[in-house]
Design goal:
alpha/beta, 169 residues, six-stranded parallel sheet, Rossmann fold
Length: 169
C-alpha cells in the first residue's frame, strides 16, 4: 500500500516517524530516507540509536532549504536518495519504506516527476510505502491508496517562535 502525507500543516514527518515506531514495535524493519534533511532531528537520532539493524536511515541531503535553482550537487544527492529508496523497495527486506520530503525535493527541482512516479510503481508486495511533503502532485495522489492532507489552521511560527528541539526537530 502507498500512503501520502501532504499539505501545508505540521505533522507530515511526525506521522511517518510515528508509523515507523509502530512498524518497529510489530517487529518490522524500516527504511527511512529523507530528502533535503540531514538526519539530525530528534526522532531520527532516537530511532537510529534504539533500533540498530531494524531502522535503516538514508539521507544524502545537506540539511538546508533549497532556494532558487538547485545546485548540481543537490541534484546528485537527491538522485542518490531516490536510488537508495528504489533499492530498498526492490529488496523486499522492509515492512515500511519512507520517502520523507520527496514532494518538497521534486517541487524544488531536484528531479522530474517521472522518477517519483516510477518509485511509486515499483511492486511493493507486503512493503508499505510512505511519501511525505507539501504539494503532492495529482499524479502521485492518483497512485496512492491513502492520502492525508495536513492543513494549517493556526501556527505559532507566525508569531515568531523558532522551531523547538523535541517538538519540530
Amino acid at each position: 500500500m502507498i500512503h501520502i502525507y501532504t499539505g501545508d500543516g505540521k505533522g507530515k514527518t511526525t506521522a511517518a516517524a510515528g508509523l515507523a515506531v509502530r512498524a518497529l514495535g510489530a517487529g518490522l524493519r524500516v527504511f527511512f530516507a529523507q530528502f533535503i534533511k540531514d538526519g539530525s532531528s530528534s526522532e531520527i537520532v532516537f530511532l537510529k540509536e534504539k533500533a540498530p539493524g531494524k531502522f535503516i536511515y538514508a539521507s544524502h541531503g545537506r540539511g538546508k532549504f533549497i532556494l532558487g535553482k538547485p545546485s548540481d550537487e543537490d541534484i546528485r544527492l537527491a538522485r542518490k536518495t531516490l536510488d537508495s529508496l528504489e533499492e530498498a523497495l526492490r529488496s523486499s527486506q522492509y515492512g515500511l519504506v519512507v520517502a520523507d520530503e520527496i514532494f518538497g525535493a521534486w517541487k524544488a527541482g531536484l528531479f522530474p516527476l517521472g522518477p517519483l512516479l516510477g518509485l511509486m510503481r515499483i511492486p511493493c508486495g507486503e512493503t508499505e510505502l510512505v511519501l511525505t511533503g507539501r504539494d503532492a502532485p495529482p499524479e502521485a495522489v492518483a497512485l496512492a491508496d491513502l492520502v492525508t492532507e495536513m492543513k494549517c489552521v493556526k501556527h505559532y511560527y507566525s508569531k515568531g517562535r523558532p522551531p523547538q528541539r523535541g517538538i519540530e526537530m
